[in-house]
Here is the input.
Amino acid sequence: MTVSNANALSAKDVRALILDRDNTELALIDVRPGGVFGDEHLLWANSVPLTTLEIEILDRVPRLDTKVVLCALDDADDSIIDRAAGKMAEMGYTDISYLRGGVKAWEAAGFEVFSGVNVPSKAFGEFVEHTYDTPRIPATELKRMMDEGENMVVLDSRPMSEYHAMNIPMGVDVPGAELALRVHDLAPDPETTVVVNCAGRTRSIIGCQSLKNAGIPNKVVALENGTMGWHLAGFDLEYGNTRKYGELTGDGLKKAQACAAHVRERFGVETIDAVTLAEWQTEKGRTTYLLDVRDPDEFVEGHVPGSRPAPGGQLVQATDRYVGTLGARIVCVDDNGVRAAMTASWLVQIGWDAVVLEPGAFEMSETGAHVPAMPAIPDVPMIEATALAARMIQTHIVDVGNSLAHRNSHIPGSRFAIRANMPENLASLSDDRPIALTSKDGIIAKFAVKDLIDGGFKGEVMALEGGTEAWKAAGLPLKKGFENNLDPSDDVWYRPYDMDDAQEGAMKQYLSWEVNLVAQIERDGTTNFRVFD
Here is the structure.
């Protein structure tokens, strides 16, 4: 198929753009399903699947005249590229190209192809350990320390959602950006050993090195391979805990701010005022991301107008989830300068142009959760949950949301499908009944219904009002597992803990993959990670 909505670029052209990103901003967007993306992709490609394009792209790439290069696997994906380019053009994007021949052409040109997700950040974590010899201990050593009652704390650097799913005994949830702010209250005795862990490697390494960079007097070590290493060593995990850091004391804040000042100086992190930010935000030809790196609950309680939530630990470990434009500026925001400074220091080392907004530069007057920027939600035929429940036998129910969420909880009888594969994946459904599409909150389902109607789909199609969340809120039954999927569940990159079976083998493979990233990025040659004495 010919791509009519975008200009074709060769692999060499795209590589040249990546290497010139400090002079010309670039958004390299892979529009395939997330799981397929995770199998093989370009290092700097940002995964924004066609399924969620309208919901994600304007936050990821907010400047409409940014140079956008779309990519997929090969020429067989040209139809997905064309549809994505068409949708982006309708949203107002003006400079859209695509990688001719996709990932396969990139590989054929002799360039490196990567697997996994959030690869630049994870590769950077391995680079940090390799460069600074970040101290680490195996699970067996930590277990011995616990059994012998050594003076120590275990700080889990993951978000509460991950910590709640499983944690190491003694572990206290202190997400990455909180570590340098909270450690002085959690380990006030300088003789206390601080052990930092995550699920695997990256956030353990970055968390440990953060505290070392901050210059705290305690001995600090990373738990080698995190909870996976603990599990593989045969030790028990805990489940369902909600332990987290306590209230910040005045003394703790004073010490944390002194540490943050040291980090800003060492890594050349600049602080800007309100006037500078306003100038940047109106500057043409340059993108400025304003990211609030505090705890998400704090963001809801009050934040700088126009900022987006990006908890610091997650921003460093998965920058591509929040920032889609290479060469852009990132302005980190918090309330006292500590979390913003620590986060920005890591972004600077990765190679980003990152600064801190002066605390108090703007009043945090805006409240509530972030609502993604997106086009107007289409007006399409709808059905309410109770009405759908009454006619389930006479209706095909298709879930176009996330396969992992579908596996964990879905409307009985509903089938998982990938929006990008419509309408072809609906061919197996009998045409004697209408089709009701659902997704988590119903938004993706509405966009999918519009696709089908605009494409001339012959059958009756509608969206479930409020999606599966509305079904659940109505007290209607839910089911786990899969039922006659219309597509493979390759829309999501499944982590080892997400696997139904063979978890231990997946963990070993995952940890080995992370370690090998250092050699792979050297072969790739497009990173600009910075080393500071």
